[in-house]
Amino acid sequence: MSEQNGAVNLTITNNIGTIEFYHPKGNSLPGAILRELAQTITDAGLNDEIRVVVIKSRGDGAFCAGASFDELIAIEDYDTGKEFFMGFALVLNAMRTCPKLIIVRVHGKTVGGGVGIAAAGDYTFAEEKASIKLSELALGIGPFVVGPAVERKVGTSAFSALSIDATNWYDAEWALEKGLFNKTFDSTYDLDQGIRDLAGELAKSSPDAMKNLKGVLWKGTENWDLLLEQRAEVSGRLVLSDFTKNFIRKFKEK
Predict the structure, then answer these.
(1) Other CB atoms within 10 Å distance of the CB of residue 47
(2) What's 116's domain CATH number?
(3) Is 40 in contact with 17 (CB distance < 8 Å)?
């Protein structure tokens, strides 16, 4: 995959597997990136050299701009729509079923699917300037696929606020208070140091103990393979609406 179309890379250092995703348009998530990210997470989970996984995005701008508008507006049938949103389901289920604990590094603004990735982390670090938004309802869709991951972390009330107030940003302090973020830092230097410290400690911990802890942390999500596919079907239908097409078209014309 060329850099113009984005990239997903895995590096391994001292038993820490770092997965970095990138797209030139605000680290957005086209279908190909979603599937490569999901596969890379699965591969890291199967790699005996890796004891803990860190997921991050490249650069110092947005952590993740969410779904690719270019792909969304090009969807013309239900099957294509479902296939696109299944990309998010694959990533969340890969994070859920990965036998390694996953740390997520959030910097800058995070939208839609990026919020889902932050929520699916077993421990999520963020920069204090980070902010989040679930903008799907404003698009005429709704945060259906990422919803279970976000609601699991922040609870129904906070998830409702994010879902309904789809045009406003929520700051890192709010996300920390609600449990989406586990720790925040006032600089990317301190953010990275915090991640190195925790990942380093986890890399020295018992793989079996961490695997069993992961199972405990995700108890009650065993039906997500089916649930997230059903949610992808809902989004796959809604993305075909004139409302969504017109919204994206107007947004891209700005």
Answers:
(1) 15
(2) 3.90.226.10
(3) no
Backbone angles phi, psi at 21, to 5 degrees: -110, 155
Q: Give CA–CA dist 124/102, Å, rounded.
A: 8
Number of domains in the chain: 1
**Sheet with 131-133: strands ordered across:** 109-111, 131-133, 170-171
pTM beyond 0.90, yes or no:
yes
Confirm whether 225 is domain-assigned.
Answer: no
pLDDT tens sequence across 123-145: 999 999 999 999 999 999 999 99
The total number of residues written for the chain in this structure: 254
Query: 226 lies in a domain?
Result: no
Looking at residue 2, its pLDDT comes to 57
- Structural domain contains residue 223: no
Residues with Cβ < 8 Å from 59, sequence gap 6 or more?
A: 22, 27
Summarize the chain as % helix, strand, coil (round to 5): 55, 20, 30
Phi, psi of 90 (to 5 degrees): -65, -40
Domain range for residue 111? Answer: 3-203
Separation between Cα atoms, residue 162 and residue 208, nearest integer Å: 36
